[in-house]
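Support case: coenzyme A complex. Customer-provided input:
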Amino acid sequence: MSTVNKAGLEDVVVSTSDICFIDGREGRLLYRGYNVDDLAAQSTFEEVAYLLWFGALPTRKELDAFVKTLSSTANRKLPPKLIAMLRVLPKKTTPMEVLRTGVSALSAWDPDAADNSREASLRKAMRLTAQMPTLVAAWERVRRGKAPIAPNPRLSLAANFLYMLSGKKPTELAARTFDVALILHADHEFNASTFAARVTAATLSDMHSAITAAIGALKGPLHGGANEQVMLMVEKIKDPAKAEAWIRKAIADKARIMGFGHRVYRVEDPRAKHLRRLASELGKQVGDESSLEILNTVARVMTEEKHIYPNVDLFSGAAYKAMNIPTDQFTPIFAISRVAGWAAHVLEQHGNNRLIRPRSEYTGSTRATYVPIAQR
Ligand code: COA
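Agent response - structure generated as follows:
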């Protein structure tokens, strides 16, 4: 039995996969061989979901048919009883708790729930990818005492989400920015949530169970929860003029700064530059670039002093903030994109499955003598 000598499975290769490649030294990220920089510049989230699930870029005809199904009201709408369920949840329930609960509940209404064939799992992947934005937006409305807004099948997944959140069609810049953010978050190899999805799928459990497990893993602040923590840091710093002193003190106090560092990247995360640019463009449009100014100062000092670089979570929040999206919705937004990657990994796992069941190195006692309870 081989022993893992680095904690947290660092650098341990646990499986082969054709889906995603990360070069942590060069700062390169590929989905199915395509550089994420090219996808962010030229693709759409829908096209990327197709690429992740089917392994190749679609033709125009294939993409049109795919988008039509993915954006159909039949796939995007929530069962009315699920919306009734949302209404009975305490208003303080966090959006990630609601998403985790709602995705799990959706299987109760899914016609393919018990079918793990590739065709059925693809239909479930399609439905979950279509339903999750509706669920996230519906909770935002319900917790504010407003009625959920029905999805608009003529809008892209990105534009429709922003529309269901606010009731207004987004500007072109906001819709494109959001779409690019979704592209950039769609997959990332064997990160914690994807691994959770694959471990679940490897027991031959179903798509909804795997995605629910992944949402639970994404919620933590060391993973998807970091983007929300970044914005809380920006709100604490408040004034760009105070950012440098704040971060220098945080470094001196040995604080962990959210939005920095990565298990795989030794350079800046290749996704960060896109989000920095988009946050800047949106900030200019709304006339408030203070969040970005704060983040740029924090990034400069972290890089100079600690040689720890921005990850994907540093700049996404500044872009979402400029779109007026509440901070605690940032991690659910990560999930409505990453579901595309999670589903691709579930499909791949089911396509060539073996139970994932590692060992631990036992460090406990082997000589305990049982003492009956009356004598303890
Ligand atoms: N702020 C301050 N120091 C950090 C840091 C951060 N964000 N990330 C890593 N470090 C430092 C650690 O203190 C540690 O220093 P030490 O060796 O002197 O003790 C060293 O870098 C290695 O950190 P470690 O936590 O062992 O790395 P990891 O690979 O286990 O963790 C993360 C990776 C992502 C969990 C970690 O970088 C982190 O906590 N980042 C902040 C949360 C975040 O943004 N998560 C989103 C990731 S996309």
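The longest helix spans residues 118-143.

Case will auto-close in a few days if no follow-up is received.
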